[in-house]
Write a structure and sequence with these properties.
mainly alpha; 2 domains; Growth Hormone, Chain: A; 75% helix; 17 helices; 439 residues
Length: 439
């Protein structure tokens, strides 16, 4: 196992971190403008359920192949060249999407972005380059906060773009503009974090995720990353349907719920994880975070079916009739959502739901930074790009299957089942982390 080269003086300064934060935020902003609209492209081109599935899975499946390789190459050639390559191809993919005149053009654009778009993993590797082991979770939390902010604002920008244009390609042009901005930020503000003397002496493409899975000290963390992401992304995908079923929220109300989740998540990443990591260590923080998500999901599953005080069932039914089905619904068939009774209106349901979401968001904000920090400690600084690329690939694999698994449970066994099952699984994972060494 490689050993860390001691760097006693912290490089986690405003001047070094700001460009990484900014390019991550802008890049994610471009991506999240597109994500909520992909199923609309599929519907616009009259796609079959199988074709919708291919379109939805193209990006995460391509990332499973591409991101670990791009991360390993960044260990060999430096962070800045690989960031620029991945950002340029992401920009090209958005232009392809804006010009798409068939579903296969849409799918090709997502494959191009997935194969070469290793922006986040490479940015995380850059943060790892400039942080000491004891502050790395905090540094990775900063990139996570940029990620969370982008996810909060991107869908809103997409909605605004469609409001002023009937062209489905207009949000893709906006995303391409943000992607171009991230290229300029990297080109002019980002300083290389991996000097030539610290780069791997041979190309580390061998350290892709299948090889890392065989290394017990890394493989267990990758499996844990995958498993928790299946649960969390399933929760994220179904939260809108769940809030409709429990408290009758739709549209703007659900958007407010997501903003609350985003604010708590960003707080955990910017303020909380650094303090907890220094005090308890990354392994214990991961355990605490996974347990928080588990408890929160179990509480969420017990949310009473009590609509908010302004709920009118007839209005909600009319709004639902105008909604476009999601890609998960197209694949699985209609996912029935029973509406809460109008006679049960009150504030108890929504207060319970918000209270349950707080531990979920707090935990979610700390899981990935703490697990990624553990991986970088164990793998050594010559392979940060490889190991963080493999971690990103595990997340992408989880994102490909989580909506379908959660949607199936929701459809077959009711609205609360995915959250109850997910919460129980997270508590099991939290117990398993007791066996993880702290370094």
């Amino acid at each position: 196992m490689s050993t860390e080269i001691p760097r006693p003086r912290s490089q986690l300064t405003f001047e070094r971190v700001t460009p990484i934060f900014a390019l991550t935020f802008v890049d994610i902003l471009g991506l999240t403008i597109i994500l909520p609209l992909l199923h609309l492209y599929a519907i616009a081109f009259g796609a079959s359920p199988l074709e919708v599935g291919v379109a939805a899975a193209a990006f995460p499946l391509a990332q499973i192949i591409g991101v670990p390789i791009m991360g390993a190459l960044s260990d060999r050639f430096g962070r800045k060249p690989l960031l620029l390559i991945s950002q340029v191809t992401t920009c090209i993919s958005f232009v392809m999407l804006a010009l798409a005149n068939s579903l296969w053009m849409v799918i090709l654009s997502r494959v191009v972005d997935g194969l070469f778009g290793a922006n986040i993993a490479t940015a995380q590797a850059a943060i790892s380059d400039i942080t000491r082991p004891d502050e790395r979770a905090r540094g990775l939390g900063i990139t996570g906060a940029a990620f969370g902010l982008g996810f909060m604002l991107g869908p809103a920008i997409a909605a605004i773009a469609l409001e002023f244009s009937d062209d489905l390609g207009s949000p893709a042009w906006v995303a391409a503009g943000y992607s171009l901005l991230s290229i300029l930020l990297t080109l002019f503000l980002f300083r290389e974090t991996l000097p030539s003397e610290r780069r791997a002496q041979q190309v580390a493409v061998r350290l892709t995720w299948p090889g890392l899975l065989k290394r017990s000290h890394i493989g267990v963390l990758l499996i844990l990353m995958f498993a928790q992401q299946v649960v969390f992304y399933g929760f994220e995908s179904l939260l809108g349907l769940f809030t409709l079923n429990r408290v009758g929220l739709l549209g703007q109300g659900v958007a407010v719920i997501f903003v609350i989740v985003g604010v708590v998540l960003v707080f955990a990443q910017l303020r909380l994880i650094g303090q907890l990591s220094r005090r308890f260590g990354d392994a214990r923080v991961a355990q605490i975070a996974i347990a928080l998500v588990g408890v929160g999901l179990l509480l969420l599953a017990t949310t009473p079916a009590q609509p908010h005080p302004f709920y009118v069932q007839r209005i909600v039914e009319n709004e639902i009739a105008r909604l476009t089905p999601t890609s998960t619904e197209i694949l699985l068939g209609n996912i029935p959502v029973a509406l809460p009774p109008e006679s049960a209106r009150g504030v108890g349901g929504i207060l319970w739901l918000i209270g349950a979401l707080i531990p979920v968001a707090l935990g979610a904000g700390m899981i990935r930074p703490s697990l990624n920090s553990l991986m970088t400690r164990r793998q050594g600084e010559q392979s940060y790009g490889s190991v963080l690329g493999a971690s990103a690939a595990a997340v992408s694999a989880a994102n490909a299957i989580a909506p379908l698994l959660g949607g199936f449970l929701f459809q077959q066994y009711g609205a609360t089942t995915p959250f109850a099952v997910g919460g129980a699984l997270m508590l099991v994972l939290a117990a398993l982390t007791l066996r993880i060494r702290t370094s």
